Q: What sequence folds into this?
């Protein structure tokens, strides 16, 4: 028997086993559980924490309450309006996410505090806007769903909505967008450098979480017959976070387990045991500090069965990279960057105007990595022109520049440690190739490309799919990141000390890969390197940076003989 | 001048100065340690409940001050030791953990004092003739105390040995450690100073607001917005943030109603996020 059908069977059998009261109770908490799944999506997948999620539950509940009261003689119309109530919550969440993420670019404190403030505000509006919301007492006398008469009917409706929410979440988690959410929680910068608009990815995650909270809230109104300001307020928001955390925010079913178990227990015990809620708060802190996987973490082996196993399915060829356009010249003209009093780049002009391997050397602080940061769009306040294939890219955000065919390997191996090797490589394949809508198709996780196959035959560990990237050695991670950069088939490849910290054998492997890439890509490969023996072996042209400007350019022998360069390295006159 | 306008003007000064003190503890902990303590508001609540306990025992009001300082420093030290110490440089985990702490402190207060409002009587009742208008003595006194607390802290931070050690720690913890400064103890002390300041602010406002377990939420949000608007890490940032947020809020609330004031503050904070994300006084 397939795992999801077991879940469906349990859901159908529960009210028969537990009786009507518990069926009613579970039906109510199934709606909250939908909202908690949204918290799991934001926090457990995409790595940001909304503290005011009840806002979206409450908004949809009020909207659906208005619909049911307004159309009480034509309830079928009200039922048809339920999806719109949920959609309104989803759109509001997306808009909030868009406004906040677009500007801070970080998922930390600011977002959480704004959402907390918004839910307090929603509570205040709901309480004080008497004429519309019914004030503190709320909307009363909301008619029930037509055609349902006993409590377990309501339970089945709630359970069905929860199952729909779970199916939606399961699909998203297994689709590329789910992989990208988990990736951005681990290393947002890296994802931007692969050309993904992480702010939009986060806004979408938050929008979906608002939508599914809205689905729960929309049903709440007709099922409970009353909507009060508390539904949008701080208390429920806090409970949702606790339930998701205790159940296990990282797994699909964790938030549901947490809500059904802790939520319905709390409603029984909070009045009889005075310190129950204190204990729950302590428990929450312990979960956060010590056991982030929650109850679902304990039940992991069992849950893994329910959530389904991945079977080995055949690979599919990815479409050709858009960057199989002609290689482009990269030219920097009079590029300067200042931070406060410090000049980082000082009128730097360099042309990388043909295919080949170029090495950039220079003493510490010469501005080598800053030059890369300026090219890939990570420095603000850049003046001058950086031309790529004739167009100026100064001022573009990193993900746009990546889309134009600039790939980069960071100095410290920078992969997505908690993702499998296969997913790491897949992200690189999606970069620039997958249209936004395609990120919803799970089959994209099976993409492969001729270059990937060639890389996998050179380095067999790249084919050991389910292993996590963090299990790889330092050298293997360097090769994985380099392979990921190559898979985007860039027009310009920037490598920041690709051999740092590697053993001689690993260094040979990386050098071989770089040479292979130069032939395969036919574009410019620009390498920052300190080790002159490597420079000697690789470089066609060497550029020497000093104090943020170009000191010398030429073949290796010429550079080594250059008096100015020697002076800088020996530490003579500055 | 019209006495009504004078009264309103003093009200704005009062709102700004009390907001500066309310945000001070958060500014110390967030600005110097980089720890966003969401439980900041709950330390203010603890101060307010200490005032309530003092009064209900029939002790003189000033007893609330040492009582609060004792409670908040013990609690602050314990929290720093158990929770915060392992989370420095992990801002997201700190956020979640201190959010859990704020929940815990609220639930403890609720378990001891119940969910309802408590009120504390004003220790200095009555009004005084000031600039041609009758103004409550206690509020005037709070303005003076607020300014005193902020200036004493500024002078202490700028002149004392501990202050310069803290500055060293903030600028470069490794180097400070290498100079023989115990960064771990100093960070703990800074955290405790922050929680004590919050508690003290709680004692100050307790007679003027309903004392209840949930009171801290509003304070921590307002304090956070003060720091966002003003900018982290400087006194001028704190004061300018308090002027903008407190002034805006009290003017809008006076002209329309409190919910609008709250909404205006929120919109203002989001506007600042877009237009000036590092605040009015940005630290280099």
A:
């Amino acid at each position: 028997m397939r795992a999801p059908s077991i879940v469906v069977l349990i859901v159908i059998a529960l009210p028969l086993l537990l009786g009507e009261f518990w069926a009613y109770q579970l039906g109510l908490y199934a709606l909250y559980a939908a909202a908690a799944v949204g918290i799991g999506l934001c926090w457990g997948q995409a790595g940001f924490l909304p503290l005011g999620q009840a806002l979206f539950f409450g908004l949809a509940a009020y909207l659906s309450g208005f619909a049911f009261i307004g159309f009480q003689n034509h309830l079928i119309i009200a039922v048809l309006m339920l999806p719109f109530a949920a959609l309104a919550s989803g759109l509001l969440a997306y808009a909030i996410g868009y406004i906040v993420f677009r500007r801070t670019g970080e998922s930390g404190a600011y977002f959480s505090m704004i959402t907390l403030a918004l839910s307090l505000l929603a509570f205040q509006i709901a309480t004080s806007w008497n004429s519309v919301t019914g004030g503190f007492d709320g909307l009363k006398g909301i008619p029930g769903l037509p055609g349902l008469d006993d409590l377990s009917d309501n339970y089945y409706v709630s359970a069905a909505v929860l199952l729909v929410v779970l199916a939606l979440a399961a699909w998203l988690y297994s689709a590329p967008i789910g992989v990208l959410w988990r990736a951005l929680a681990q290393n947002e910068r890296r994802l931007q450098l692969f050309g993904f608009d992480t702010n939009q990815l986060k806004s979408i995650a938050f929008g979906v979480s608002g939508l599914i909270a809205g689905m729960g809230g929309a049903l709440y109104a007709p099922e409970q017959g009353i909507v009060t300001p508390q539904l949008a307020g701080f208390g429920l928001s806090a409970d949702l976070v606790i339930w998701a955390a205790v159940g296990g925010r990282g797994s699909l079913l964790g938030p549901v387990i947490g809500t059904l178990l802790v939520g319905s227990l709390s409603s029984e015990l909070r009045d009889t045991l005075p310190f129950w809620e204190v204990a729950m708060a302590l428990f929450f802190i312990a979960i956060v500090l010590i056991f982030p996987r929650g109850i679902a973490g304990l039940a992991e082996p069992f849950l893994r069965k329910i959530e389904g196993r991945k079977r080995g399915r055949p690979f599919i060829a990815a479409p050709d990279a858009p960057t199989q356009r002609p290689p482009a010249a990269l030219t920097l003209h009079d590029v300067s960057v200042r931070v406060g009093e410090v000049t980082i780049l000082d009128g730097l002009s360099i042309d990388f105007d043909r295919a080949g391997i170029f090495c950039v050397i220079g003493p510490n602080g010469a501005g080598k990595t800053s030059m890369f940061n300026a090219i890939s769009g990570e420095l603000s306040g850049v003046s001058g022109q950086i031309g790529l294939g004739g167009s100026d890219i100064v001022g573009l955000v990193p993900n746009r520049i990546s889309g134009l065919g600039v790939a980069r390997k960071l100095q410290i191996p920078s992969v997505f440690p908690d993702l499998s090797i296969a997913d790491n490589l897949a992200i690189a394949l999606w970069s620039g190739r997958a249209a936004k809508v395609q990120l919803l198709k799970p089959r994209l996780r099976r993409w492969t490309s001729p270059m990937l196959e060639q890389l996998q035959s050179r380095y067999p560990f790249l084919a050991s799919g389910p292993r996590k990237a963090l299990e790889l050695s330092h050298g293997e991670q360097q090769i994985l990141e380099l392979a990921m950069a190559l898979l985007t088939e860039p027009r310009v490849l920037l490598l920041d000390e690709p051999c740092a910290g590697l053993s001689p054998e690993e260094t040979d492997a990386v050098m071989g890969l770089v040479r292979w890439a130069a032939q395969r890509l036919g574009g410019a490969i620009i390498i920052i390197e300190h080790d002159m023996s490597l420079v000697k072996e690789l470089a066609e042209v060497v550029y020497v940076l000093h104090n943020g400007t170009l000191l010398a350019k030429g073949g290796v022998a010429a550079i080594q003989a250059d008096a100015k360069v020697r002076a800088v390295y020996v530490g003579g006159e500055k | 001048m019209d006495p009504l306008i004078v009264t309103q003007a003093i009200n704005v000064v009062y709102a700004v100065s009390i907001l500066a003190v309310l945000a001070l503890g958060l500014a110390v902990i967030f600005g110097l340690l980089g720890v966003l303590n969401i439980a900041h508001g709950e330390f203010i609540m603890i101060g307010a409940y200490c005032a309530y306990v003092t009064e209900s025992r029939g002790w003189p009001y000033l007893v609330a001050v040492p009582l609060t300082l004792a409670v908040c420093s013990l609690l602050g030290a314990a929290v720093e030791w158990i929770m915060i110490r392992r989370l420095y440089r992990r801002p997201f985990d700190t956020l979640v953990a201190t959010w859990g702490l704020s929940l815990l402190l609220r639930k403890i207060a609720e378990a001891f004092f119940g969910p309802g409002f408590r009120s504390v009587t004003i220790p200095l009742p009555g009004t005084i003739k000031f600039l041609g208008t009758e103004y409550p003595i206690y509020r005037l006194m709070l303005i003076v105390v607020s300014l005193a607390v902020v200036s004493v802290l500024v002078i202490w931070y700028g002149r004392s040995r501990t202050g310069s050690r803290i500055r060293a720690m903030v600028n470069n913890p490794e180097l400070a450690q290498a100079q023989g400064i115990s960064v771990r103890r100093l960070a703990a002390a800074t955290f405790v100073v922050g929680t004590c300041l919050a508690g003290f602010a709680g004692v100050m406002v307790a007679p003027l607001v309903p004392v209840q377990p949930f009171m801290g939420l509003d304070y921590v949000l307002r304090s956070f917005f003060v720091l966002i608007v003003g900018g982290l890490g400087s006194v001028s940032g704190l004061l300018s943030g308090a002027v903008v947020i407190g002034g805006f809020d009290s003017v809008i609330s006076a002209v329309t109603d409190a919910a609008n004031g709250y909404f205006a503050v929120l919109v203002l904070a989001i506007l600042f996020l877009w237009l000036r994300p590092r605040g009015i006084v940005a630290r280099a």
